Amino acid sequence: MKTVHAWCFGFALFSTNAALAKTFDVNGAWKQLNTVLATHYAYLGDAENHQAVEQAFRKKLNGVYNKQDFIDLSQSYLRHFTDPHLNLGPLNEDDYIVYPTGADIFAVFEENIAVVLDVKRDSAADIEGIRPGNKISTVNGQSIVSAIEDVMQVELSRLTDAQKNYALNIALGGKRYQPRRFKLITKQGTSEMQLPASYDAINALSKGGTVLYKKIEELGYIRFNNAMGNSNTVADFKAALQALGQVQGYIIDLRNTPSGGNTGVAEPILGHFSTTAAAYQKHRIQTPTIHYQRAQVETANTQPAQPSIQIPFIALAGRWTGSIGEGMTIGLDALGAIAVVGTPMADLLGGIKRLPLDKSDAWIELGFERLYHVDGRYREDFEPTVIMPGDMDENGNDVTLERAVFLLKQHIDGKREVIN
Hints:
By secondary structure, this protein is of the alpha+beta class. The protein has helices spanning 2-23, 26-40, 50-59, 67-79, 124-127, 144-152, 161-173, 198-205, 232-244, 263-270, 324-334, 399-412, and strands spanning 87-89, 105-110, 113-119, 135-139, 142-143, 180-186, 189-195, 211-216, 219-224, 249-253, 278-285, 298-302, 313-317, 339-342, 351-357, 362-372, 386-387. It folds into 2 domains: 105-202, PDZ domain (Pdz3 Domain, Roll), CATH 2.30.42; 209-352 and 366-418, 2-enoyl-CoA Hydratase, Chain A, domain 1 (Alpha-Beta Complex). The chain is built from 12 helices and 17 strands. Strands 2, 3, 4, 5, 6 and 7 form a 6-stranded antiparallel beta sheet that branches. It has a 6-stranded mixed beta sheet with strand order 8-9-10-13-14-17, sandwiched between helices. Strands 1, 11, 12, 15 and 16 form a 5-stranded antiparallel beta sheet that branches. Helix 6 packs across helix 7, helix 9 (232-244) runs parallel beside helix 10 and helix 10 packs parallel to helix 11 (324-334). The protein is globular, with a radius of gyration of 23 Å. Residues 1-21 form the signal peptide. One of its GO terms (biological process) is proteolysis.
């Protein structure tokens, strides 16, 4: 009887899977996804080993029988592009965080462990005391290698270094709204650490206002609080300028803009930094009929706004400067910042749009608009003029802000040669 029941169960499972396969056209859904990428994604040609990855994931379609499994597999496939702007949904509680919004640790993969290079200020990781220089050997009971392979759904040996590091930082962010467990290695030894979901601290931070500001001696400091998609940010920035009163220079902090925003917020703010209409970035748009390389290069301008800033200013950028935050950084550089201080940014590629994938009841967000600094560099190739190791040092000090204060004061005092 046991043999009969086992055989009947296997037959029933085979029959169910066969029926599902008939109702869901997985090959049609896969073709649609890749057609959309080829037609609309302006960064497809930059993807390392894309053809090999596509072939490897196409072979995995044999085990996909429903739309949710297809969405899960496609999300892993798109992570191989290492583009935080390239996302597929809808998302559920079992999905990994959207990077970098849900990330609070930036690490690199070395000798099968995670070496922490940076920690987001005021995040769950910061509050729990994780610092640059610490190492993480397990995530939620998994080895670092297993965690990376789970994110990417391929063996570690098939990944480039960039893909390994990208997957690692997603794994450290964990699943959406789910707590995380790390085995942390510090100078004091090894310990188990439990962190809340990264989004919990991020949501708490959002209650602090769209901009934060204070005086640092004779300087005005303004920090954007991940609200570059909130129209109130424009008025709040102007109010911050007025509240600070007379200062000798400004430090504009864009290190907490991982979720991006839109030009409707960015352009009016940038307008305070110019007395005339001025270019702050360039772009090319890919369409179904025109590849971005054949599209005309267009210039984005900002219009002057009051009060007009005609004193020295420095911009701060980092690994949680994303999308329009990156656009504002290159814009401030073009508009005359005496320096951009920080680390390489998050590299959210291009201006994005969302397209439906009706064969799988999904959607895809992708960069269809290639963005450039006004000097012609790709936005993703821009790096701060003064490179720092991270938002904080091993003791949690804000070394980037400290450096910016020093440089701006030196500039005001006429010692311009120190800006390097």
